[in-house]
Amino acid sequence: MSSDFESYEQDFAVLTAEVTGRIAKVPKLLGDEKKQMVASVEKQLEEARELLEQMELEVREIPAQSRGMYSSRMRSYKQEMGKLEADFKRSRIAYSDEVRNELLGDDGNSSENQRAHLLDNTERLERSSRRLEAGYQIAVET
């Protein structure tokens, strides 16, 4: 059973590495190329979510004495997934800011500061929500 989990782990590692590389390219692309890359990244992120779901199912089937180790690995994978999704959002926003500034002809510093502040607050809210969900899940399991 743990061999299935380890296989999923390897697939997840390869997939997240590909996604990270593609996310870095998104702000530099224009037009249809950018749209294709964004669609590709979204598809890969969905695949990664599905892998996480499969890994969770495997963890549930593992005997209780070794489940703790796998559960902690799952938490780190979920955090990594959250970070990838946030990075993807930022890369798309970075591009839209450049286009906006070009069209409007302003520097947009205050807008960038507000956007960065909003992103920070959104991430903080998402982390808090994940902690609450994890706490609720623990409560339900006990």
From TrEMBL:
Q: Which residues cross the membrane?
A: none
The protein's matches in InterPro entries, at most eight in alphabetical order, are given as: SNARE (IPR010989), v-SNARE_N_sf (IPR038407), Vesicle_trsprt_v-SNARE_N (IPR007705)
Subcellular localization: Endomembrane system
Give the way it sits in the membrane: Single-pass type IV membrane protein
Coiled-coil region list: 31-65
Q: Where is the composition biased (Basic and acidic residues)?
A: 114-124
Entries under Pfam families matching the protein: V-SNARE (PF05008)
Q: What's an example Gene Ontology biological process for this entry? A: vesicle fusion with Golgi apparatus
Return the GO cellular component terms, semicolon-separated.
Answer: cytosol; endoplasmic reticulum membrane; ER to Golgi transport vesicle membrane; Golgi apparatus; late endosome membrane; SNARE complex
**Family the UniProt entry places it in:** Belongs to the VTI1 family.
Q: What is this protein called?
A: VTI1A protein
Q: Which organism is it from?
A: Eudromia elegans
